[in-house]
Amino acid sequence: EQLEEFWRKGMERMGDTETIVSIGMRGDGDEPMTEGTAIELLENIVKRQREIIAETTGKPASQTPQMWALYKEVQDYYDKGMRVPDDVTLLLCDDNWGNIRKLPDPQAAERSGGYGIYYHYDYVGGPRNYKWLNTNQIERTWEQMNLAYEHNVKKVWIVNVGDIKPMEFPTQFFLDLAWNPEAFTAPDLPDYYVSWATEIFGKEQAKGIAEIMQLYTKYNARRKPELLNADTYSLVHYNEAERVNNEYQELLKKAESVKKLVPSELQDAYYQLVYFPVAASANLNELYFVTAKNRLYAKQGRALTNSYAEKAEELFQKDAALTQYYHTELADGKWNHMMSQTHIGYTYWQQPEVNAMPEIKKISLTEKAKMGVSISGSAEVYPISTEKAILPNYDSFNRPQYEIEIFNKGKKPFDFQLSSNYDWIKVSEKKGKIEKQEKIMVSIDWSKASEGESTGEIIIKGAGDKVEVSVPVNKIGEPIKPGFLETNGYVSIHAENYSDKRETDSTIWITIPNLGKTKSSVSTSPAVLNLGEDIEKSPRLSYNINFLSEGEVKVHLYFSPTLNYTAGNGFKYAVGFDNEKPLIVNFHEDTSSRAWNQSVANNIKILTTSHHIKKGNHTLNYYALHNGLVLQKIVIDTGGLRETYLGPPQSFEIN
């Protein structure tokens, strides 16, 4: 009786307001109504609700717009056979992380009520709340909502933005896209940033602001700020943590330079829409980067350990200072409390009550000088390590530089000397004095290096110790065909950089600019067609690769975390080298909660196949057997791949 009174009064309050009545029922506190799926109970609830709608409006229930939200466990009712009258709109939902859970079968009979989508830009729940800043790429929103539109989901689109204030940009995009979906195509998405910036800030600075917004949302979409910690990015492998930190710092410099050019009357708008999200995110990433260095340096006994602890504390305080300025000084406190959301110190899905400083380390040093040496690609400390000090491999195409760091583990300074009997080894410094630490860059004079593989050596002396560092070199003299080059035991390729493609009469390949953790992504279009599993006729992308080694290799494909939105058993693709029989992979074979948690937290899904390769030029073929998959990156492990969050940078491509 209380529920019926609640429903009836709600309808009476609605009056003649133009609205859509939500029918059905869930439990209290965003929980299921019952244990299991009580279909008969929910059917009776819907029946009674529609009777009340008819009674209060004085007309048949079918003449009042209604929708049934298939949110979370409610979708189980639908999947197990529960149906509502045809005039009711079925509101399909995402997984709260921007991945659509279900779309109608294109061959199904049309419903007069049609279909809608409930999408998320903000969420409270597992694997982690994300509410602080915008972390949504409009490219992913377009890709998912374009799927919905092509599957005839057109009746109503709803997006949960949490607090409007940090979500103005993606909210505007969602509304513009919903107003005219056919006006947006993948190649046009970069233009939206420019048009948005022009409308608010004028034409003069629009391109600069567009680039800032494009990169800021890309960087923050890699991993939600609430999920970041000091271990997210690797300090050791591929210089990943430093590269990510540098990207944020470069973006911050650009935001600061544009800020100086924005008219005074638009400064407040620029600060809250553009500058603050960049500054706050750059600061947070630097906090974790510095914390990671502090912890590593503490393990290695470096004299700089405590300085990095102090720097981390300063960055933590800066986070609070940025927020305080936003609340009390920006626009005379107009937006006070808008950025009060805690975002540092999560230990599980729910937010901490207050931001918590990450754990840092402080150490005591010996009085006398003591030399330590570290090298690129290793966390080892020499001379105490029992492992041999070997720099990553140098090759004559990439022509990299690698680092040797000489550091002090004591209070007193010491002199160091570097020497080598190999005239093709170049170092940035041959001698000097170490107060705290010194970075030495090591490169190769390729005009003096011998053709083929060879190994040189650098000898470092200081504070009574000696360290020998091996320098492996490959001056490639044999003819190399066009393609990506294996080096240091891996090949890494951005998916958009294919060598060749095969399309069909009905399906083409599209590049979705900026979508993904590193560059752009590729997918098939239109997404509504069923491609079938005939590999000989399926759309294909080919990548030419030069292997310098042979044996078993593992091919890791990096995909956006698309869900199985059909009634089928999962989306499939195939992968193979040259003319070998391709391996067919079910993208959705693992449907466990653990797999879903990992893929949405990492904002990537990586699937792996094994192959056998001989030395030389080969072609990797990727076949689309189902539409809807979005490929971001390909990484091939030939025996030397190191674990990182983003995967290694793209390999050198020989044209």
Tell me about this structure.
- The protein has 655 residues and is α+β, with helices and mostly antiparallel strands.
- The chain has five domains: 1-87, no CATH class; 92-184, no CATH class; 204-333, Methane Monooxygenase Hydroxylase, Chain G, domain 1, CATH 1.20.58; 371-475, Immunoglobulins (Immunoglobulin-like); 483-654, Sandwich (Jelly Rolls), CATH 2.60.120.1620.
- Helices cover 27% and strands 24% of the residues.
- It contains eleven helices and 28 strands.
- It has helices at 2-14, 39-57, 74-79, 138-150, 168-179, 189-201, 206-221, 240-259, 267-300, 305-328, 593-602, and strands at 21-23, 66-69, 89-93, 115-120, 156-160, 371-375, 389-390, 394-395, 402-408, 414-419, 425-427, 431-434, 437-444, 452-462, 465-475, 483-485, 490-494, 500-502, 508-512, 521-525, 540-547, 551-559, 572-577, 583-586, 605-613, 616-624, 631-637, 653-654.
- Strands 16, 18, 21, 23, 24, 26 and 28 form a seven-stranded mixed beta sheet that branches.
- A hairpin with an 8-residue loop joins strand 19 and strand 20.
- The termini are far apart.
- The model has no long low-confidence stretch (mean pLDDT 97).
